[in-house]
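Order emerges. As here.
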Amino acid sequence: MVETGSSIVADEVERFAALAGDWWDPDGASAMLHKLNPVRLAYIRDQVDQHWSLDECSLKPLTGKSALDVGCGAGLLAEPLARLGAKVTAVDAAPGLIAAAELHARGQGLDIDYRVAAVEELTGAFDLVTSLEVVEHVAEPAAFIRALAARLAPGGLLILSTPNQTALSRLLMVGAAEAFGAIPKGTHDFDKFIGPDRMKLLLAEASLKCIDVEGIAWSPTRGLHLSDDIRLNYLVTAIHA
């Protein structure tokens, strides 16, 4: 079921809301996200440093900048963005996840503006907009990306991540990962996966320019890591065209 005028799919919200209780447990149902998060953060930090010509050794490179994380879950990305100095707003459609996020942030002494909301309900502009592993779960990806673009400040940076639509992603992310319990069953619908070429078109239709694509690959020796191999999962960075 889709909420009218919103990117939110109620069934997807319910599925992820059920994970709220152990979201911050690195060995819990969201363990794969915990493994993925350092890889995503390394990419974000590199893109941020390049885009704003920042000191790559700075502990708080985002000081003075605003960040919006859409589909934030219980805050796995929002918290590191806050630690990097950003003034963070983070939204998710699941009240239980936002409650878990607020509780965890308080325990960490972090001031993050968490909201139960869809991106279409927001106003204002943000220097950095992130939405990781979300676009494959929304009702209309094109409308969702337009809504993200509407929240991106002039000169700002948009960063997304999503599974590629390949035989390898079907095998590992839908087949093996769910079969062996690495992620909860039903997490992914292969038909909703978006390849980089289609992603670039969606970005262009939202008056955004793709400036970088980088893969997230997996190997037995390295685990998840940034790579030129985009067959499994990838990150994309865009700016206003």
